[in-house]
Amino acid sequence: MLVAVTRMAETLTKEVFGDEWIKSLSDSNLQEIISEIKERTKLFICENASYQRFIDRVDPRIEGITQGLVQQTADAGDAGRIRSKPRNEATDLTLRLSWEQKVIVVQSEQEAYKHEINGLEKTSEALLHNYRAELEALAVIQKEINKSSYEFSKIFVTSGCGDLVKPIYYEKFLKFIQDSMRQRDTIVDKLRLKNSALHTRMRKSREQMRQKEELGEVLRPVDFEQLKIDNSECLRKIDERNQEIQRLKLVAAKTLQVLNAYKIQLTQAIKEKERIKLEIAQRLDIKRRAQSEMVTVKKEVKEETKANKEFQEHKSSYNVPSVIGLIRLKSEERETIRKESIHRRKLHLAQMALARHKKIWLRIRHATADTIA
After folding, report:
1. Alpha carbons 249 and 100: distance in angstroms, whole number
2. In angstroms, what is the C-alpha Rg of the chain?
3. Angle at 273 between CA 271 and CA 276, to 5 degrees
4. What is the SS3 assignment for 144-180?
5. Cβ partners under 8 Å of residue 87, min gap 6
6. What are the transmembrane regions (predicted)?
7. Any bridge partners for residue 93, and if so which?
8. How confident is the model at residue 168 (pLDDT cuts 50, 70, 90)?
9. CA–CA separation, 187 and 28 (whole Å)
10. Exposure pattern of 335-369 as b/e (b: 16+ CB <10 Å)?
11. Do 14 and 22 touch, CB atoms closer than 8 A?
12. How much is the pTM?
């Protein structure tokens, strides 16, 4: 298609400008013109493909498209180009779309791409879910196979291999197979019950959806009016509830203030209580000490009373001696003191004599010992 469009462009250029103008261009200029024509051709091919898809999706006889097909006469010449001969005017009858119709086509193409992408996403998600389910099933199967293989190896292979190969009994092997099949049957029953429960839930959900759709289809204008009335009633109740909530919030705020005041008073009362307890404990301690001191004072008072009584009795029975008796006692005292001093001198002299006699005795003893030796 690209080659055909290129050939058409070359033919049109020859018809409009002639062969001499083309021959007058250099190879580089021709290459640039050809590349530009190819780029434009690619754009035209893309637009034509979009239009073709749009026509395939939509009826081509609709008025929105056919009314835009207008016949225009295009000037095929280019005033900026230098020609070697006078330019021939040619008429190009083309059918073109307006910008609004092009926008409609592009929007339709965009919506088609979106639907296609959504379909691909849904298909991909479904495939992904299926693959995940298959992977989970394969993982469960692999786990069961590994478990069965481990149990079989533990029961038969390990006990049957060694230096002396032990025989594997048929009854034991058959029992193992039966137990395995029984476990698999149990798992299959559980899965079947779970599957049936899921089917039941799906059926109920579909029934609910069908009922909702039927109710939605049966609704009439009267029902909508009733719904409006119910809605207004609900809005009125909501306003009343909001006002009640605001009033309760105010009451709660006042209650909170009162509660905080009571909490402060309670804290002060607790502090006062602790202070009073401490003061009571101090006073009880003072009372105990006062009671112990009172007992001690009572004992002392009793002793002092007894001593005072004895002193009073001694005082009442005391007789003052006469002067002659006092003189006689004084003379006796002086005589006793004189005798004491005499005896002390005698004692001192006796001690000195004793020391002298000890020295003499020791001298005599040493002399006797020397004589005997």
Report:
1. 59
2. 68
3. 110
4. HHHHHHHHHHHHHHHHHCCCCCCCCCHHHHHHHHHHH
5. 16, 17, 77
6. none
7. 73
8. low
9. 79
10. eeeeeeeeeeeeeeeeeeeeeeeeeeeeeeeeeee
11. yes
12. 0.33
Convert the pLDDT of each residue in 249-306 to its tens digit: 888 888 889 988 899 999 999 999 999 999 999 999 999 988 888 998 889 889 988 9
CB 73 within 8 A of CB 93: yes
Judge whether 95 and 71 are in contact, CB under 8 Å: yes
Predicted pLDDT of residue 321: 65
In degrees and rounded to multiples of 5, residue 6 shows phi and psi of -65, -45
The answer to whether residues 149 and 176 touch, using CB atoms and an 8 Å cutoff, is: no
* Ordered DSSP codes for 258-279: HHHHHHHHHHHHHHHHHHHHHH
For residue range 87-116, list pLDDT tens digits in order: 443 334 455 677 777 788 788 888 888 888
Residues in the chain, overall count: 373
Q: Do residues 76 and 89 lie in contact, with contact meaning Cβ atoms separated by under 8 Å? A: yes
Is-contact 67 74, C-beta < 8 A?
no
Give, to the nearest 10 degrees, the angle between helix 2-17 and helix 27-57.
Answer: 120
